[in-house]
């Protein structure tokens, strides 16, 4: 049994008593957090660590992330923030020059606003990349852009049918343009690429994201939609003792259009939740994607887009309700991606159905994103105990103009209304949805507290009245995210009995101008009492 006493720091607990002077841990748990005299008395046999007057926070719990995808994206060509197709091509070439033996170019993060009309085309890539396949995922992770070599490699032709809930965009003559949406991406192109990822590549991706998490202070992430390959990678890492952050995992369920097949996926999740439940790796629920994104015009809206179009849900209520009821009956937590207001209503109605079928009791269902939401529906979801799970990074003003042009000013001015959630009494969870946005939590907190862009702080904020106080943002990104996974008695706060997961920052961000968040770094990350990251000082 080993005790450690941490002193000489400001400890922000994210708990009811927000501040403490000392933290005493025994093995992997917190024994005491509070005043230093008591901590010293309880820890008279402890090793004392002087933190030099720094700030301590609970480790961040990323409420919504795609863990292996983040590791994968960290190894791909980064197209985020690219201004136009020229810049995209230049970055792809640069990446390829550095990896001349790569069999294909994999890229991530192009913004829709960088493509004239938001519609990429294979021809924009073919001249520069005639032979090597190029796969470039959009920043919202709901579309992918292929050149002709990639279309040929996957085998997409004019005859390839669009799947339910997805689309291969086509030229007038029926040829695929290389712009691929939603289930055509996630159900066809994605699995093709996944097949190419062997176990060792997947393990490298997991190692890569964990290194990034250690450095940036993420001690737990809610993995939003893992599959069998991810599971094997997680299990192998756990067996090898190489996990340095905790995973709360949600099993991805796809709408097959067939009720029995959909319920069979729930049954698999139930089996996993029973068998995969350790302090580091815990299957807690299921994930469904009801609609797409605003940028892709695939989010389902109550009132059409500015151009008059609208989208159909990937999960109509009739398909979703039995799945939610079955998962709910088994005690699984259901996470429902719903970006448009109409999709949010489908999600709420599905939970209401689950409550009708299974009776009233405590449950932790959640809706992901809620970028466009009707205030009346916020009251509804709050009264049902549904957690809104939102991503401050998605309000980045640099991405806002395209988003705004799709919706018009009235809806854009009510986009991402975090304070509505807490005012209605809902528990708001914050995450990043990485790799659709960068994973580091401190810039995410910056956007929560300012609605400004971390890469361009001088740009006008995106609806600044929806910013939240920094301390609240940190609570949403730790304690509340833990709560939504049902893990509030394990992680997310500095509190006696919980795991000793915490981080030490070089700057007390609560006492400095908020822009200092952008230069603040994580000096130390501790997971279950073990120091997993220590910066060179
Ligand atoms: Zn996501």
Number of helical segments?
18
Ends distance: 29 Å
Mean pLDDT: 95
The CATH architecture of the domain at 68-196 would be: Roll
CATH class of the domain at 68-196: Alpha Beta
The hetero molecules present are:
zinc ion
3D shape: globular
* Fraction of residues in β-strands: 15-25%
Can you walk me through this structure?
- It is a single chain.
- Among the domains are: 94 residues, Urease, subunit C, domain 1 (Roll); 129 residues, Diaminopimelate Epimerase, Chain A, domain 1 (Roll), CATH 3.10.310.
- The chain has 18 helices and 22 strands.
- By secondary structure, it is of the alpha/beta class.
- 34% of the residues lie in helices and 23% in strands.
- It binds zinc ion.
- Zinc ion binds next to loops.
State the main characteristics.
binds zinc ion; about 25% strand; about 525 residues; Urease, subunit C, domain 1; alpha/beta; 22 strands; 8-stranded mixed beta sheet; 18 helices; 8-stranded parallel beta sheet; Diaminopimelate Epimerase, Chain A, domain 1
Task: Describe the secondary structure blueprint for this structure.
Layout: E1 3-12, E2 19-20, E3 22-26, E4 29-34, H1 36-42, E5 47-58, E6 60-65, H2 67-74, E7 77-78, H3 85-98, E8 105-110, H4 123-126, E9 134-138, E10 143-146, H5 148-154, E11 166-170, E12 176-181, H6 182-196, H7 199-216, E13 218-226, H8 228-240, E14 246-252, H9 259-275, E15 281-289, H10 317-329, E16 333-338, H11 341-358, E17 366-369, H12 375-383, E18 387-390, H13 400-407, H14 409-412, H15 418-423, E19 429-430, H16 441-450, H17 470-476, H18 479-484, E20 502-505, E21 522-527, E22 530-534
Parallel strand pairs: 1-5, 6-13, 7-8, 8-9, 13-14, 14-15, 15-16, 16-17, 17-18, 18-19
Antiparallel strand pairs: 1-2, 1-3, 3-4, 5-20, 9-10, 10-12, 11-12, 20-21, 21-22
Helix pairs in contact: 2-7, 7-8, 9-10, 10-11
Bound molecules: zinc ion.
Zinc ion binds next to loops.
């Amino acid at each position: 049994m080993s005790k450690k006493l941490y002193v000489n720091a400001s400890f922000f607990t994210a708990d009811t008593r927000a501040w403490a002077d000392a933290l005493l841990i025994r093995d992997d748990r917190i024994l005491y957090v509070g005043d230093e005299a008591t901590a010293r008395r309880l820890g008279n046999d402890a090793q004392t660590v002087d933190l030099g007057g720094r700030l301590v926070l609970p480790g961040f719990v990323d409420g919504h992330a795609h863990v292996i995808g983040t590791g994968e994206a960290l190894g791909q060509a980064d197209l985020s923030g690219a201004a136009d197709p020229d810049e995209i091509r230049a970055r792809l070439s640069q990446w390829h020059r550095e990896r001349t033996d790569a069999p294909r170019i994999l890229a991530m993060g192009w913004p829709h606003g960088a493509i004239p009309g938001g519609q990429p085309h294979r021809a924009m890539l073919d001249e520069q990349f005639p032979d090597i396949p190029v796969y470039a995922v959009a920043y919202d992770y709901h579309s992918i852009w292929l050149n002709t070599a990639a279309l040929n490699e996957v085998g997409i032709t004019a005859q390839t049918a669009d799947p339910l809930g997805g689309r291969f965009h086509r030229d007038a003559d029926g040829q695929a343009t290389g712009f691929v949406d939603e289930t055509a991406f996630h159900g066809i192109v994605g699995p093709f690429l996944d097949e190419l990822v062997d176990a060792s590549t997947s393990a490298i991706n997991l190692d890569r994201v964990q290194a990034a998490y250690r450095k940036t202070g993420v001690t737990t992430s809610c993995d939003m939609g893992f599959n069998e390959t991810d599971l094997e990678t997680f299990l192998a890492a756990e067996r090898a003792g190489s996990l340095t952050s905790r995973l709360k995992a949600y099993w991805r369920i796809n709408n097959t259009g067939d009720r029995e097949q959909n319920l069979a996926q729930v049954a698999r999740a139930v089996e996993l939740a029973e068998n995969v439940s350790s302090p580091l790796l815990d299957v807690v629920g299921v994930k469904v994607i009801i609609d797409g994104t605003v940028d892709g015009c695939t989010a389902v809206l109550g009132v059409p887009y500015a151009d008059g179009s609208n989208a159909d849900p990937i999960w109509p209520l009739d398909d979703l309700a039995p799945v939610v009821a079955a998962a709910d009956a088994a005690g699984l937590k259901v996470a429902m991606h719903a970006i448009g207001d109409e999709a949010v209503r489908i999600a709420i109605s599905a939970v209401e159905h689950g409550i009708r079928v299974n009776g009233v009791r405590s449950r932790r269902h959640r809706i992901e994103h809620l970028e466009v939401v009707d205030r009346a529906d916020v009251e509804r979801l709050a009264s049902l105990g549904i957690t809104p799970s939102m991503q401050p990074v998605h309000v980045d003003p640099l991405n806002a103009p395209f988003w705004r042009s799709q919706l018009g000013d009235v809806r854009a001015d009510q986009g991402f209304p975090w304070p509505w959630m807490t005012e209605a009494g809902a528990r708001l969870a914050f995450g990043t949805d990485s790799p659709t946005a960068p994973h580091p939590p401190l810039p995410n907190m910056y956007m929560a507290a300012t609605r400004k862009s971390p890469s361009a702080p001088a740009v006008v904020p995106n609806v600044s009245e929806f910013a939240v106080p920094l301390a609240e943002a940190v609570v949403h990104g730790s304690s509340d995210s833990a709560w939504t996974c049902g893990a509030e008695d394990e992680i997310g706060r500095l509190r006696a009995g919980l795991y000793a997961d915490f981080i030490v920052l070089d700057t007390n961000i609560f006492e400095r101008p908020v822009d200092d968040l952008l230069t603040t770094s994580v000096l130390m990350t501790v997971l279950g009492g073990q120091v997993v990251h220590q910066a060179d000082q």
